[in-house]
Design a protein that fits this description.
By secondary structure, the chain is of the alpha+beta class. It has one domain. The protein is 17% helix and 34% strand. The protein has helices at residues 6-16, 103-111; strands at residues 19-24, 27-36, 45-51, 61-64, 77-84, 87-92. The strands form two sheets. A four-stranded antiparallel sheet has the order 1-2-3-4, with helices on one face. Strands 5-6 form a two-stranded antiparallel ribbon. A hairpin with an 8-residue loop joins strand 2 (27-36) and strand 3 (45-51). The longest helix has 11 residues, at 6-16. The protein is globular, with a radius of gyration of 13 Å. The model has no long low-confidence stretch (mean pLDDT 93).
Amino acid sequence: MMTLPQEQLNQLKGAFGNIATAEEGGRTYIRIDQLPLPAGCSPQHVTALLCPSPRDGYESRLFFCQQIQHAGKGTNWNANGVCILGEKWWAASWKINPANKTLMSKLMGHLEAFSNGNAT
């Protein structure tokens, strides 16, 4: 299990509102309801589950309650309907920079997979 720094959880809560933590299989997960996705994604908001610790050969993973339609580079959905905490989740194959150490930087690193690179 990973003890998450309260100030980093507070930063996520301040940015996204409703977050919750839960543990399963020795891992701590952060659930973010109504996470806003980069421009061009469909849907624009989705429930997400951040696993900030190593899992499945990745430094961290960001799971979604459904697959996201987007024009970004994260098009290989290699986790399809994985059961975590009693719900089904999807994740794209995307490795973030290991320098992303905070919860917010990990989350933002994962969201880069869904950005088409055009700043608005």
